[in-house]
Design goal:
alpha/beta; 5-stranded mixed beta sheet; 5-stranded parallel beta sheet; 11 helices; 21% strand; oxidoreductase
Length: 416
């Protein structure tokens, strides 16, 4: 127990302070839910803060209608609860949201919604984390779990002339369906999984998409002979070194998909697994877009040099094309540097400096989940580690001989 002078106590516990009898979890996406469920299993109370008005707001509010999980469901389930047996191998967006809501209900996870974290810092004098939220409410506790993840904020590149473009400009996080673009020419900036799938969706709804491919990219078939390519890679990694598995993946892609360089899709020199391991660049799993590229329904164009007047777009090869709309499929980034203060555990991009599988625990009661660049499986693995570690500390510190009468039922114990 930390004893503070009276004036220090007065400054620490302001009129709108909440003492948290357990860890403070920031973020109620899949990562935060996974930690909360595992903590409950360990008997550790917590409070979970969420800036939106629902769980998994990225999935619920910032994903397009046709989205499906790109990996088989067994690689995407959260700890302690598999997907229902009747779910398909690649669950839809709606099915995944239902799964998360059932998960929260089963483990009685009740976040504090519409609670945006403005800042979080460690008070060395008291040995406590102080988390200031919207409405000037401050949560104070021994442990902080950062679960805001890799996709907290949309990324839109700063391209000359963009502000003067006369057509509709949006990020893929605001895109729902190609129906709104029927009959229009649309420039999709980005060729990752989202860029490919949005281009396909636009094509299916009668739009005329052109996809910007600025850099080399690995495109793999989603399945090979009815077997998930990702599952095959995981299996091979048990027996073979990464560089050999990479070569096998590239050869399989060439056999199944052919020479993609003719379509304007160059492969990087490094293998797909190596790029994922070192730079977090996920290979694209083809869900049907390549067939439309070959048919000429989806054009492949180089990088955008600048936006001109009206609906003009100048490309890196000198061509000037006209588009009715632009959709940026340029990804997301962590927002941790915007609110977490006084710690060097995260780098300037908002990722733990220590690589997976050791980047889940920092100093002074700081934890991180959802920053592994390994999707839901990586987040689940870290959630289990965090809960086990906190469970051990909690049981040690709440032994009757040390802290008689400790409260296990409520995580928010006092509102001052």
């Amino acid at each position: 127990m930390v004893l503070l002078p009276t004036d220090r106590m007065d400054s620490l516990f302001s009129p709108r302070c909440v003492w948290v009898n357990g860890p403070i979890i920031v973020g109620a996406g899949p990562s935060g839910l996974a930690v909360a469920a595992c903590l409950r299993e360990q008997g550790v109370p917590y409070v979970i803060l969420e800036r939106a008005d629902c769980i998994a707001s990225l999935w619920a509010k910032r994903t397009y209608d046709r989205l499906k999980l790109h990996l088989p469901k067994q690689f995407c389930e959260l700890p302690r609860m598999p997907f229902p047996d009747h779910y398909p191998e690649y669950p839809t967006r709606a099915q995944f949201i239902d799964y998360l809501e059932d998960y929260a209900s089963r483990f009685e996870i009740k976040p504090e919604f519409s609670c945006t974290v403005q800042s979080a810092r460690y008070d060395e004098t008291s040995g406590l984390w102080r988390v200031l939220t919207s409405g000037d409410m401050e949560y104070i506790g021994r442990w902080l779990v950062v679960a805001t993840g890799e996709n907290a904020e949309s990324v839109v590149p700063d391209i000359p002339g963009l502000g003067g473009f006369g057509g509709k400009v949006t990020h893929v996080s605001d895109y729902k369906s190609g129906e709104a673009y029927r009959g229009k020419s649309v420039l999709v900036v980005g060729c990752g999984n989202s860029g490919m799938e949005v281009s396909l969706d636009l094509c299916d709804h009668g739009a005329r998409p052109a996809m910007v491919v600025r850099d080399a990219v690995h495109v793999l078939p989603r399945e090979v002979l009815g077997k998930s390519t990702f599952e095959l890679a995981v299996l091979l990694m048990r027996w073979l070194p990464l560089w050999i598995v990479d070569k096998i993946m590239v050869i399989l892609a060439w056999i199944v998909l052919g020479d993609l360089a003719r379509l304007g899709l160059r492969r990087p020199a490094a293998g797909p697994l190596e790029l994922k391991e070192t730079h977090g660049r996920t290979p694209v799993l083809d869900c049907g877009a390549l067939a439309h590229i070959r048919a000429g329904d989806i054009a492949v164009v180089p990088a955008v040099k600048r936006f001109g007047k009206g609906d003009q777009v100048e490309l890196a090869d000198g061509r000037v094309l006209n588009f009715d709309a632009v959709i940026f499929a340029t990804g997301y980034r962590s927002n941790v540097p915007q609110w977490l203060q006084g710690t060097d555990f995260f780098n300037k991009e908002g990722y733990p400096k220590t690589a997976f599988p050791h980047g889940w625990k920092g100093q002074a009661g700081l934890y991180a989940v959802g920053f592994t660049r390994r999707g839901l499986s990586g987040a689940s693995a870290d959630a289990v580690r965090i809960a086990k570690d906190l469970g051990n500390v909690w049981r040690e510190e709440t032994k009757p001989t040390k802290r008689a009468g400790a409260c296990h039922r409520r995580c928010i114990s006092v509102v001052f």
